[in-house]
Amino acid sequence: MTGLRFILLILLAAASPLKASDGYELWLGHPPLSESEIQGVAEGLRALCAPSRGALQQTARREILEATERMLGSALAPVETVDQEGVLVLGTPESSSIIAGLDLADDLETLSEEGFLIRRLEVDGHPAIVIASAGDRGVLYGTFAFLRHLQVHRSLDKLDRMESPRFRLRLLNHWDNLDGSVERGYAGRSLWDWEELPEVTDPRLADYARANASIGLNGSVLNNVNASARSLEPEYLHKAAAIAGEFRPYGIPVFLSARFSAPMELGGLSTADPLDEKVSAWWKRKAEEIYRIIPDFGGFLVKANSEGQPGPLTYGRSHADGANMLAAAVEPHGGVVMWRAFVYDPEPGSDRIAQAYDAMKPLDGEFASNVLLQIKNGPLDFQPREPFHPLFGGMAETQLMPELQVTQEYLGHSWQLAFLAPMWREFLHADTHAKGPGSTVTATVDGSLFDQNLTGIAGVANTGSDRNWTGHPLAQANWYAFGRLAWNPDLTSEAIAREWIAMTLTRDEEAAATVERLLLESREAVVDYSMPLGLTHLMWEGHHYGPQPWCDHLGRPDWNPTYFHRADEEGIGFDRTKEGSNALAQYHPAVRSRFADPATCPDEYLLWFHRVPWDFEMKSGRTLWEELARHYQRGVDWVEAAREKWSGLKGKIDPEIHAEVAERLEIQERDATRWRDACLLYFGTFSKRPLPDGVGGPSQSLEEFRRQDPLDLEGP
Ligand code: BDP
After folding, report:
1. Ligand 1 in contact with 342 (CB < 6 A)?
2. Model-level pTM?
3. If you measure from the C-alpha of residue 341 to the centroid of ligand 1, how many angstroms do you get, rounded to a whole number?
4. Which of the residues 18, 232, 278, 584 has the least number of beta carbons within 10 Å of its own beta carbon?
5. If DSSP codes are grouped into helix, strand and coil, which group holds residue 52?
6. Residues 432, 393: contact at Cβ < 8 Å?
7. Ligand 1 centroid to 488 CA: how many Å?
8. Domains annotated on the chain, with CATH
9. Up-side HSE of residue 150: CA atoms within 13 Å toward CB?
């Protein structure tokens, strides 16, 4: 081979897209580094000194060996001592006499058992890299952090990191049913094959757990919050135990959603009253049985007295009575109860979004020490944008756990691109003012502002049996982002996007920058074309895909889009000020006064908190109607431009993935346009104003939009 050809080949290899194949490997493909990359980041790394003690440390050791083999071309050589330069030393003071001999005790003490430090240190006279933790899990998380560092090509030169996760429980919630379906799942069937279990365990179970561990998640709730009591039958507990067995080497204990009336359905009792001794005794025995079958079982998640689910209110008892009774059953085994605050009155009456606060706030201080109140980020229901739930910062004596939705129930399912890190950060960093300015939501739940011993965060999973796990190839980034933010809510969306792109799609800087911008802007575009200026819940009934702002016939008034937007000839929006529902009173005075005045209320929440006339003058000087129309148009324009940018990435991204995303963006443009046209036509019947210049006119009549279920249109 001539020298020139050789150089050309090397250049080609360096610029070629990462072969992400079918997406199965997620961010763990560990593609080979080029010679120059190895020189830049990993030169001199030769050997691994890691104990093969304990399942988690064994996993860590195997991960390093396998990943370095793939990335560097040959695995690090396992060694017992450090007698050369370039050794990676791994372990805890208990598992490794080398780590025990280093001067790390003070540092390790400041970290949690899950925390780790990674540092360049002199070991037995040789420069080495040390990954140390006080606990086995920390070794595993440190390992994955180190591998991530290599993958995104940060130099090892100045490596010095100390990290502990901000939340103690970092869980995925699976809304998976025993028949294999997934409520609000858009990526195929459930990953758990209840029929085949426990005899047959799919290798995907371990791959799933590995992916979670690699981003710092540490538990999974296996079944739907709309739970079947059968999940607690011995037969299903043995199936869950088989799953737990596959997850264990990755430090992912399982949890179950518990149906509150299970003592009646399974135990033949005539009541599920939490204060009835027979009931509490039944749960105690059930907990003992569960822990016999699954010794490291994590605990229960409970949806009670919500949307038809059974609960303690049926017996005149409180949510705290119910939660504490279950908490007492799991407490001797170290289990927790996550009691959901997603409740609204069975009989519609007052403002729906205010009802959870009204139901839970009076119980502040009444929950047992192993109970967490699990609260959705916003007071309604996982909309593309909501203000933070006023219970955050509002229950100082209760351990609170945010619940986020990773699956895109209201953000275009897996047909549309919406990178959710910016949305979650907006929530996590919202200022509750609970203890003065700077009281972010995170600070109110991570134990720093209030005395909260047990902390946690949950994400409703977007995974399923699809080969690429998440349906939309780029939706993998949301799973990734949830894990990274659960570990460290201060990470920026940019940093998370950048990591994910480098580990999955491309290392070409220009292409990566383009993808990064698309990811970062995508959620705002969805807000623009589906619910601008604080409008909300305008989605099609049932499946929640596409627009149905005219819908007014559902079982209860407060399920209807018309309830939320209240448009008529005078104006549009929901008045939540003192003159209206007064839901604003639930916020701290500083937040309340900002939102209460239309002049200081941010545009993005205007119609959430206010009802204003069509000619209301916006901060931009435009009328509300014009501004609304422009937002719809801006959303559509974004998707159009995104398609173009994406098509420019051809050849720089794995062709299969490129084609799949391109196809979905085409659908997204069609459906964003539908949102704009259907909503503007419909709201135009009230506003009776023309579309402003630059806003596209509809291609169909309102009647046609009303007739056609958007989910029946062709999908990917
Ligand atoms: C809503 C979903 C519904 C869930 C419910 C919940 O539409 O499927 O059961 O939330 O969180 O968002 O309990």
Report:
1. yes
2. 0.96
3. 12
4. 278
5. coil
6. yes
7. 26
8. 3-163 (3.30.379.10), 169-504 (3.20.20.80), 528-574+611-712 (3.90.1330.10)
9. 27
